[in-house]
Amino acid sequence: MNWDTIGPVYGKAIVETLIMVVITLVIGGFAGLLLGLGLYSTRRGGVMSNSGLHTVLNVVVNIVRPIPFIIFVTAIGPLTLLVMGTTIGTTAATFALCVAATFGISRIVEQNLVTVDPGVIEAARSMGAGPWRILFTVVIPEALGSLILGYTFVFVAVVDMTAVAGAVAGGGLGQFAISYGYQRFNWGVTGLAVVTIIVLVQIAQFTGNRLARKVMRR
Fold first, then answer.
1. pLDDT tens digits for 27-70?
2. pLDDT digits (tens, 9 = 90+) for 92-131
3. Which pLDDT score, from 0 to 100, does residue 30 have?
4. How far is 73 from 103, CA to CA, in rounded Å?
5. 26: number of Cβ within 10 Å
6. 3-class DSSP state of 26
7. If you write DSSP's letter for every residue of 120-146 in order, what string do you get?
8. How much is the pLDDT for 1?
9. What is the mean pLDDT of the chain?
10. Cα separation of 163 and 59, whole Å?
11. In this structure, are residues 97 and 80 in contact, taking their beta carbons and an 8 Å threshold?
């Protein structure tokens, strides 16, 4: 590998990947948390039980979540163009990532919140706590350890999706591996991208596991 040529491109690819992942986790993570809270709280027996609203939310999530990202990022091209003004590059890919992550995270949030002991919720109700107070001072704190592990899994999934975005000129390590590795038959570049992604994922997994253990011990 010619590091004079590859080095700057490689560094830029790492930065682009990290930018896409961080923005997706912040925006998609927050939107997914709210949507997940909606799914959890409106289900039958929930703190704000509403079967009609829950059905609508459930159907929407079930429609969007299973779509493979490579198809999803092209399918929402018109919306991406309308909102971001382009369908290529890191900016467009990040928009698609945020939308896709919102629906994926919502289901992870719901599944983790369901594990909270109903007795804790009933105790809060008996003390006069309202639905919103129960959600943010009882349910989320009780499920915090599991949520951290869930978001760690999401980090890994988003890194995977940024690599897929490289196939549609989304930038990052995915496009770096395709443009400078696969298309030029330079397996060293492809291997470098793979190793970099593995390192990023290992760091995130280690950090998430450690944070979750600390929270669960309290």
1. 999 999 999 999 999 998 888 889 899 999 999 999 998 898 88
2. 889 999 999 999 999 999 999 998 888 888 888 888 888 8
3. 95
4. 14
5. 11
6. helix
7. HHHHHHHTT--HHHHIIIIIHHHTHHH
8. 64
9. 88
10. 28
11. no
Lookup: tokens for 41: 């709280």
Are the C-beta atoms of 35 and 102 separated by less than 8 Å? yes
Distance CA 78, CA 65 (A): 19
Which residues are CB-neighbours of 151 under 8 A, at least 6 positions away? 25, 29, 105, 108, 208
- Cα–Cα distance, 103 to 140 (Å, whole number): 19
Contacts of 75 (CB under 8 A, 6+ apart): 67
Structure tokens at 174: 């995915």
Burial of 186 (0-12, 13-18, 19+ CB in 10 A): middle
DSSP 76: T
Q: Are 204 and 211 in contact (CB under 8 A)?
A: no
Distance between CA 163 and CA 170 in Å, rounded? 8
Q: Is 76 exposed, middle or buried (0-12, 13-18, 19+ CB in 10 A)?
A: buried
Residue 68 is encoded by which pair of tokens? 């493979």
- pLDDT per position as a tens digit, 175-209: 888 888 877 888 888 899 899 999 999 999 999 99
In this predicted structure, what is the pLDDT of residue 45?
Answer: 82
